[in-house]
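**Protein record**
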Amino acid sequence: MTEFHAEMRDRAATAVTSLKQAEANGDDYLVEVRQAELENLARLADDHGLRIPELAGYTAA
């Protein structure tokens, strides 16, 4: 795993955790921000041919 791949996995895991916390707290704005971040990370991972399980299901429309 490259450093880039590891960083992408870390960012994805952090964003997923933050998304879950925002959902639990009823913070609709932060939920939207985190979902957009995850979609962007998924697009970036796809552009670089990276498979990151945490990003499954987050694709930009």
